[in-house]
UniProtKB/TrEMBL annotation:
This is glucose-6-phosphate 1-epimerase. It comes from Triticum turgidum subsp. durum (Durum wheat). It catalyses: alpha-D-glucose 6-phosphate = beta-D-glucose 6-phosphate. Belongs to the glucose-6-phosphate 1-epimerase family. GO terms for molecular function: carbohydrate binding; glucose-6-phosphate 1-epimerase activity. It comes from the Eukaryota. It holds the Pfam family Aldose_epim. Keywords: Isomerase. The keyword Thylakoid does not apply. The active site is at H172, E276. Its EC number is 5.1.3.15.
């Protein structure tokens, strides 16, 4: 079956692990269901994960109470930032309608993963006027048996005029945290970063772990493949893994910027943190026919977490 277009009727997703929910105004969504109350919700608008719940049904991602409906990008969850460059902030993929990809090219899967969905985005005529490159962007979103979430992006250059293209990319992940002042990020200490608040000047991080006392907007360069977000009050640690994405953006707008953002509550900065696996410093270049792959893995584990121990299996099993 060919990939559904945005105007085709809802696809019949025949699996007890998947549900397709139709809603007006570009708000159709797919729900992935795992064991007990684990679930993931994905909006076709933006190809955006808007909810990820653990087996107690607790929400793990932040979504603003002031998030605006399409065609505006949606504040929270996991917006996909592509293709960035001299375009609208964070690129246009996050405010386009994606389609279900009924026939994705094979992707190695863990047989234990039953709940997944494949989405696809291709540029429209208008997109091509703005960014004159033909591409196929395939996104697989999977909910693992233990409640972990993974997003795999495959971007292919389908230009027929022989031209390469370059882009930057980010999984703009909004984590829900109890209180930003009590949160620590481990794995980025001693890393070099570009400070977006200081004209992208380069610095080296000092100290044992990253804590938050004011606005932060940094791009950590050549960041490790595993980063932990430790939420003391929730007794929860998020473990973020990344492949094919050298950098990691860390962002919290803090109070002043929060007030200036129309789609964000004045005090919501206290309950969110963005840690965004990304390719920012060096754009990715694809020749026609070439494909790039970038993967994000998320797990939420109880904070019997020991400092410096970034292996989630060790965290879970001692
Ligand atoms: O408001 P937007 O476009 O979603 O961006 C939010 C933030 O996203 C972060 O990734 C950027 O580093 C910040 O500079 C930016 O302010």
């Amino acid at each position: 079956m060919a990939a559904a277009t945005p105007h085709s009727p809802p696809p019949q997703l025949s699996s007890p692990f998947l549900e397709y929910i139709t809603a007006p105004g570009g708000l159709d969504k797919v729900v992935l269901r795992g064991r007990r109350s684990c679930s993931v919700e994905i909006r076709l608008f933006g190809g955006q994960v808007t909810s990820w719940k653990n087996d107690h049904g607790e929400e793990l991602l932040f979504v603003s109470s002031k998030a605006i409906k399409p065609p505006k990008p949606f504040r929270g969850g996991i917006p996909i930032c592509f293709p960035q460059g001299n375009l609208e902030q964070h690129g246009f993929a996050r405010n386009r309608l994606w389609a279900i990809d009924d026939n994705p090219p094979p992707l190695p899967v863990n047989p234990a993963i039953k709940a997944f969905v494949d989405l696809i985005l291709k540029p429209s005529e208008d997109d091509l006027k703005m960014w004159p490159h033909s591409f196929e962007f395939r996104l697989r979103i999977a909910l693992g048996a233990g409640g972990d979430l993974s997003l795999t992006s495959r971007i292919r250059n389908t230009n027929t005029d022989g031209r390469p293209f370059s882009y930057t990319f980010a999984y703009h992940t909004y984590f829900s945290v109890s209180d930003i002042s009590e949160v620590r990020v481990e794995g980025l200490e001693t890393m070099d970063y570009l400070d977006n608040m200081k004209g992208k000047e380069r610095f080296t991080e000092q100290g044992d772990a990253i804590v938050f006392e004011s606005e932060v907007d940094k791009v950590y360069l050549a960041a490790p493949s595993k980063v932990a977000i430790i939420d003391h009050d929730m007794r929860r640690t998020f473990v973020v893994t990344k492949e094919g994405l050298p950098d990691a953006v860390v962002w919290n707008p803090w109070d002043k910027k929060a007030k200036a953002m129309q789609d964000f509550g004045d005090l919501e900065y206290k309950h969110m943190l963005c840690v965004e696996p990304a390719a920012v410093e060096k754009p990715i270049t694809l020749k026609p026919g070439e494909e790039w792959k970038g993967r994000l893995g998320l797990s939420a584990v109880p904070s019997s977490y020991c400092s410096g121990q970034l292996d989630p299996l060790k965290v879970l099993h001692g």
